[in-house]
Structures are given as structure tokens and as C-alpha cells.
Amino acid sequence: MTADAYLALGLTAIVVNLIAGVTGGVAWQTNRISIPFWYLLRFAQLVTLLFVLAEAWLYFAGNRADDGLHYLYAALPVVASLLAEGMRGASAGQELGETDFASLDENRQQEVALAIVRRETGVMAVACFVVAFLIWRAVETTAGMF
What global pTM score does this model have? Predict the structure, then answer.
């Protein structure tokens, strides 16, 4: 992999995560469900995974950055994504508490479901911004790799 290809992949991952983050942030702020956000989020996660795999490939091919922090920045996007997915999963429990969802009337069920989706959207939008920042730092600390 060349330095230009690495930079292009890193910038693509940053931009896609920022677009997903902004889309999710707007949906969260306006209290709307955004189906495009979820597609953008999954695409951002895929591009992020490709970036991390490219990092691993470069490392094992002998291309090493001078700064050891580079590898922390390169690996943390996966950790951040996994933590966000865990928090997203826990958001339903936080919204429902001890309430039996099936016992709620239909209108209240819809309100709770929308609140859960809104909370999940907020968590994942923040994760997109964190991942974009981490990849930016990884790209910025590549001195000596190429």
C-alpha cells in the first residue's frame, strides 16, 4: 500500500464518519428517526474496519510509524465502535427501566420506541465523531511509515 492510498483510505474513513455523525446528530437534535443515518453508520463502520485492517497489514509488512501512539489511534476506533454498540444496546433498558413494554398502550409503546431510537442515534452519532477524530490522529502520526 502506498502512502497516497493509505491517506485516501484514512480521509475517506474520516469523511464518512463525519457525515454519519452529522446526520445522526441532526436526527437526534430534531427528534426524528433517520433511516439514512443507520445506513451511513454501517458504511462508516465498514470503511473504519478497512482502515484498521490496512493498518495491520502495513504493520506486519514492516511499515512502522515512529510514534507508538499511532497504533493506539489506529486500534481505538474498533474499541470505540464496540463500546458504542454496547451502550446502544443498553439504551433500551435505560429507557424502559422496569416497565413491561407489552403492558403499555399502543401510543405509549410508540413513544418509548421513538425515545429508544433517539437515544441510540445520539450514542452512535457521538461514536462517529470519536472515530473520525481517532482516525485523523492516526493519519497525522504516520511519520516513518512510508
Answer: 0.90
